[in-house]
Amino acid sequence: MKQFVHLVKPRDIEHGGIASAEIKRELREWGASAADARRAGIIAFEGEMNLIVYADHGGTIQVTLSREWIEILIADDGPGIGDIDLAMTPGYSTAPAWATNLGFGAGMGLPNMQRSSDEFEMHSHVGQGTLIRCRIERRGHDAARTGQAP
Ligand SMILES: Nc1ncnc2c1ncn2[C@@H]1O[C@H](COP(=O)(O)OP(=O)(O)O)[C@@H](O)[C@H]1O
Ligand SMILES: [Mg+2]
After folding, report:
1. I need a surface site. Which of 6, 24, 96, 104 has the fewest CB within 10 A?
2. 8 Cα to the center of ligand 1, angstroms
3. For ligand 1, atom 21, which residue shows the shortest CA distance?
């Protein structure tokens, strides 16, 4: 089992996507298939952008790779989400102008994270923060061992 953690700084939209690209690269290095790493990359990217845009102190992305699954935990101590169902609605966004001016805020991040996950769980408390757990069941995780294409 392998585990690594990335810190994401608040409001640092210039560097948005760096942590998730790094996560994708690390997963590939440790034997995840291209397809699994790509799904993990989508989840990590959307999580990373939300940490940058909404979490006043930024947050962390923790990735665990086992033989059977990849788990991604995204945690922050930001403002939290009052209505999770509303936040999960495709197209719903409270992105501030500085983010929408740069093309962010389509309201598809959380739906994309859920769609890319086999298990998706979100916990949030207003004034305390948000924790999202995404799990991907690895497909083709035997590929590296047997030398077959994933
Ligand atoms: N970590 C977070 N902390 C507080 N609010 C969040 C967080 N992540 C998402 N949200 C809320 O959920 C909404 C939907 O998020 P998302 O689906 O990623 O779309 P977008 O980021 O484009 O608005 C956000 O606009 C915001 O209101
Ligand atoms: Mg988002």
Report:
1. 96
2. 15
3. 105
The average pLDDT across 49-75 equals: 98
Closest ligand to the CA of 54? 1
- Give the whole-number percent of the chain exceeding pLDDT 70: 93
**CA quadruple 16, 18, 19, 25: dihedral sign:** positive
Could you tell me the residue range of the domain that residue 79 belongs to?
2-141
Q: What is the CATH number of the domain that holds 68?
A: 3.30.565.10
Kind of pairing, strands 129-137 and 69-76? antiparallel
Confidence at residue 146, expressed as pLDDT on a 0 to 100 scale? 42
In ligand 1, the atom with minimum distance to the C-alpha of 49 is: 21
pTM here? Answer: 0.94
* Ligand number with the minimum distance to the CA of 89: 1
Contact at 8 Å (CB) between 65 and 29? Answer: no
